[in-house]
């Protein structure tokens, strides 16, 4: 049986869908909920095959976006972290009339590094894929540790991420491999340049997964969008700096701007 886990909470009038990253689930947003629920009706989703959304196999980005969109409100703001940013971007490209605005967090339209593009070295992603079949849990833990490196609260943040994974059903190797394949091969740089809806990109200055140089490159090639680089954050800014993060989201969605 396949069923998508979807929880709706909050007192605000605006719908905001939160999409988590690779290997995780909707519990990752725990630090931000009390800060966001006064302003939004939050939709917490476990992506297909992750956490409580069991019974799904490996799938393409388009398939994952279609499944998530089918459960979503008619119109919403979408916030995608890391891999979730690709899913949210795909939804905005295929059904822009369903998207009031888009926020990507520590995400990139193309995660793999190329000569002229900063990102994760393709051999690192391939290595994770290879290691998954040999030592599933350790591979996931290594990827989570990579996401918090450099922050003042790195150890504590990594422990929190690990508990989020371990407290819910683990994704299968097939699902995790499918997610890594999305990170390795998806390239939305040109398609997303055509989007005209409100678009905010949030980055961590210390992020070792999505280098901050991506922010500057997209400032040029996506001039319709805005970016914020959080000075002391890494790949999970909503965990290390929840107050600052929530204020950025609130200001962008409700006032159409960015805190200065």
TrEMBL record:
Record-level GO cellular component terms: cytoplasm
Chain sites annotated for binding substrate: 22, 82-83, 143-147, 235
EC number from the UniProt entry: 3.1.1.85
Major location (coarse): cytoplasm
Domain of life of the source: Bacteria
Pathway where it operates: Cofactor biosynthesis; biotin biosynthesis
SUPFAM superfamilies linked: alpha/beta-Hydrolases
Reactions accelerated catalytically: 6-carboxyhexanoyl-[ACP] methyl ester + H2O = 6-carboxyhexanoyl-[ACP] + methanol + H(+)
Keywords: Biotin biosynthesis, Cytoplasm, Hydrolase, Serine esterase
Pfam families assigned to the protein according to its UniProt record, in alphabetical order: Abhydrolase_1 (PF00561)
Active site, renumbered: 82 (nucleophile), 207, 235
UniProt similarity note: Belongs to the AB hydrolase superfamily. Carboxylesterase BioH family.
Protein name, as recorded: Pimeloyl-[acyl-carrier protein] methyl ester esterase
Annotated organism of origin: Serratia plymuthica
Name of the gene this protein is made from: bioH
